[in-house]
Amino acid sequence: MKIDWNFFQSKVARRVFLLFILSALIPVIFLAIFQITQISRQLNETSQQHVRQSVKTIGMDLIGRLFHLENQISLLGKAIIALPQDDYVTQSEQLSGLAPDFVSLTLMDKEKTSLVLKGKKLVLPMDMKALSVGQTAIAVRPPQTGGSGSHVMMIHRLDPHRYLLGRVKNIWMFDIHSNALFWVIGPKNQLIYTNTASSVPENVFSLKMKQDSDVFPWQTQQEEYFVGYWSLFLKQRLKSENWTVVLAEPMASVLSQAKSLYSIFIPTVLVAIFLTMFLTQAQIRRVLTPLEKLRKATKRIAKRDFTTPVNVTSHDEFEELGEAFNAMASQLNRQFKTLSILSMLDKSILTNKDGEAILNIIFDRLKEAVNYDVLVLGMIRHEDKTRISLTIDDADRLQIEIAETELSKQDLLLLQQNQDRAIDLKKDGLPDYLASLTHHRMNYFILFPILHRGIPTAIMGMGFKEKETLKEFNTNELRDIFYRASIAFTHAEWEEQLYRQAHYDDLTHLPNRLMLRDAMNDALERAVKEETYCVLMFLDLDNFKDVNDTLGHSIGDRFLALVAKRMHQQLGNQGLLARIGGDEFTILLSDIPSVHIAKKQAEEVAERLLKAFDEPFLLEDMEYFATASIGIAIYPKDCKTSDELLKYADMSMYLAKARGKNDYEFFSSELEVEVIERNELLQELHSALQEKQFLIYYQPKIDSLNNTLIGAEALIRWQHPTRGLLLPDLFLNLAEESNLIFAIGDLVIKNTCQQLKDWQNEGYLIPPIAINIAARQFSQKDLSQRIASVIKKSGVNPTFIEFEVTESAFIENFDETVVILNQLKELGCKLTIDDFGTGYSSMHYLMKLPVDTMKIDRIFIHGIPQNEKNISIIKAIKTLALNLGMQVVAEGIETKEQSDLLKDLGCEYQQGYYFSRPLSPDEFARNYLKKIGKK
Predict the structure, then answer these.
(1) Which residues, 6+ apart, have CB-to-CB distance to 819 below 8 Å?
(2) What is the pLDDT of residues 26-56, one digit of tens each?
């Protein structure tokens, strides 16, 4: 009889299995585990002791062999001293016989003249320590080309002028297990001998530093071993650091005795199993029949046959299982039919089928999923929310009934609550708008409201004669069908959702940048045609980044949503409020008859918006305050295009921030002048690059302990034809905004490298020169290759070049920046974190950066020694750099008092006007390079 072991899932089967465990397996397994554990533990201890004794025996044997070799070469040395020099050659064979365990013997005098007594010529090791007369040393030489194994040599000093050198024969033959691994390690962990290709276990190197011998388990990819090691002390007699003998014996060979227990355990378990199976056959036969029925039913389910029920009358858990199985099959049948209906509705939506086709799908297929008696579909008119069209299908009638009725405000309010309503018609009546259903035979009714954006758009209802039929179906499945059907009837909803996704912000539900641009274009077109004015207000939250950093982005998003809601409440229908990104919002006011009214309306709206921020925002029972800065631009007074309108409003907002925040500013003529000057300066920057108006100045870095030059920083200057010499603060920010920073950065690197080469050609001994790299330059993925090309063309040594990088460069694109820095490091250049402490100063990032130096920013130098906080920060930076193995340079030193204090704090490398202002190349060479001296 075939037995299906799936019976373990029932209570009866588990009871039989428990009998099996109690009667046979538990005592046998317990006894076997106990016995195996005891034997394994004892064998493990015995095995470790065996390995410990074996490696000790080998070690003692090896040291005995070495001392025996030392005795042989000492005896030979005494014989050589006793013979006249002319007899060495004639009696070399007799002399070498005194040291039979040496394969080569060579006599060497102080002129390094060698006399080979036996074998090949040997030479005195270069790293051999000094020997006294009569002393012997041992040395290990790597194998010659084509050879295998290290060579062991002994050097014996005969007298002040002569050495006797001997290479020993094979001394590595020991009585060890055939599968054992064997290593001999010499000074500096040099491998002297091994019988295997496997590496020495890593634990040996750390353990032998703590104790002279030990045993530990070790596992390779193929096998497990017990490893023992024993240290040989050779320093006193053979003038060598300790050797270590390492022996690894396989655990399998040692613990094989434990296998004998299995030969007894397995037959015992088998006997117990067969005995128990014999006793439980009757019970097994009782459970197989219902299980077989369930198995066949499962196969029918797999073929989507849900109509044939399982009939089990065993009056136990199997009967309960059969009933549950039938319930599951019925539920699956309904779910498959529901999914089929949903699929057909989706297809009808995609193919734009008409309403009649949708009705046919619902009325033809829904009856297969739900055994209703009456089905009603009601569509609420979009143009008149008080009218509803009803389509009614009665199972007892052949034709579909259509009716139209009215909805009261109370009816709409109840539908708007979006709750399914089950109505017992024996106790309660139907709503008035469903009065046409009263003549249909039903006792229970369930109503499903369908809402769109919180507004009722349709209803679905089903009537039943029997309450049991009502309980059979899943209301969630029906709601999915009805909602999908309502979408099919109001296909415009899908189009509206797509439009909202493209034109509205998901977080605040405000119009986004795309919708703002469309609205601006429309407003500007009307302004041109009708000679009206438009106002664009650019609002940015003050210090919103602090909220994000301290509370997290999720709280920050909720905060933005509250801000948007409050501003929308303040504006009402006056203007278009949009979120264009981050914490930036815009308000567009259009169709204003005059510029005076436009300015007045803008002021009123700006004051209302700023006043809206006076009240705190409540988040998770905590109050948070915020302020905002607003920039205002008016079209066509201030600009001619929508891009300029947005740009000038943005610029005005930054002016409001610069003047103290929590305020608003109009775009003014002064700001316009600033824009014009900015554009002029931008054009002059282009000309400056073409006409080579940029100069490189050098500010020295000084070791304040001895007032010597340790380096310099290359600083760019602009020799403007009309404005004179300009500092980088006046033009570098503009260069970064306009992407000219790439060309300027290349120019600084190229000119600095060429200047270094010129100084070298003039005979100066130059220090490392630091070059600043802007954060924007790291967006060039080939930056390191460009720098390497410039350095190669100039011919300057990369070690003379140091690159200073600000912390912001690391944060903006950390992974790519680290790749470039590592490439510069591999090139040979030094790296410095510039302005350390003024940015993020993340320890996580800092540990991953390949930098050599931290540069303390001048803001921490300013105010010392009076400012104790700055002193504490400097100490912390110095300690951090020391722990990370970095140097520290302090910049911005202006007084002797500051220099002396920093020197006391351990910051001896300094830079600043106290030592020197930035100098031209000629001044720098004249004042500093000559002081170092010429080649």
Answers:
(1) none
(2) 776 777 677 667 777 777 788 888 888 888 8
